[in-house]
Amino acid sequence: MSMTRTLAMAAALLVLALPATGGAQTAAPAARAGGDAVSFGADGGEYTATGIALRGRAEVVQGQNRLRADSINGAITGGDLTRVEASGNVYFVTPNQTIRGDSAVYTFANDEVVVTGDVILTQGQNVLTGGRLVYNTRTEAARMEGGAGSTGGRIRGVFYPDSGGN
User: Fold this and answer.
1) What is the reported pLDDT for 89?
2) 74-129: per-residue pLDDT in tens?
3) Collapsing DSSP states into helix, strand and coil, what is residue 97?
């Protein structure tokens, strides 16, 4: 398996699929990004014409992708949620991948999620770690960079062969 394919597979782990665990669930204002509506929920928060601030089991969901964190702040422009910043116990989950880090920024206009701080990307048994991961939700392309955290400035990965012989 090539490193490019392996990194792409690892990047796919970013799509959010964590189950919702209580908290207030509120629909976002006519927000559309990547063709799917965006919804959000949290234990508490504020909503204004220009942004949202979510606290406690905060989550933003678009299609099958879910961003969860201790807190999420979002910018609203022209009635659409355009960007969210998450901090504290961040998880970005897709149907195939899970990405964990200390903070994340999701920009809907370019379908890009940047996760930083001891990043762990998993897809099945495969694991990729580093300090910063840039993931495109549309193309599922990912780029992992080293960081000063537990990886000592290097990226590391463990990949298992496909049991189907591919």
Assistant:
1) 96
2) 999 998 889 999 999 999 999 989 999 999 999 989 999 999 999 999 999 999 99
3) coil
- pLDDT tens digit sequence for 16-56: 222 222 333 333 333 334 567 888 899 999 988 899 999 99
- pTM score, whole prediction: 0.74
Q: Which two tokens stand for residue 104?
A: 């994340």
CA distance 118 to 95: 22
- CA nearest to 110, candidates 135, 127, 73: 135
Instruction: State how far the alpha carbon of 88 is from the alpha carbons of 51, 55, 59, in Å.
Output: 19, 10, 12
- Say which residues have a Cβ less than 8 Å from residue 95's Cβ, sequence separation at least 6: 15, 17, 64
The CA–CA distances, whole Å, from 164 to 1, 51, 160 equal 13, 47, 11
Q: Which helix H or strand E contains 145, and what residues bound it?
A: strand 142-145
d(CA 73, CA 82): 11
> In this structure, what token pair is assigned to residue 39?
């919804």
Instruction: For residue 112, give the nearest of 99, 130, 125 by alpha carbon.
Output: 99
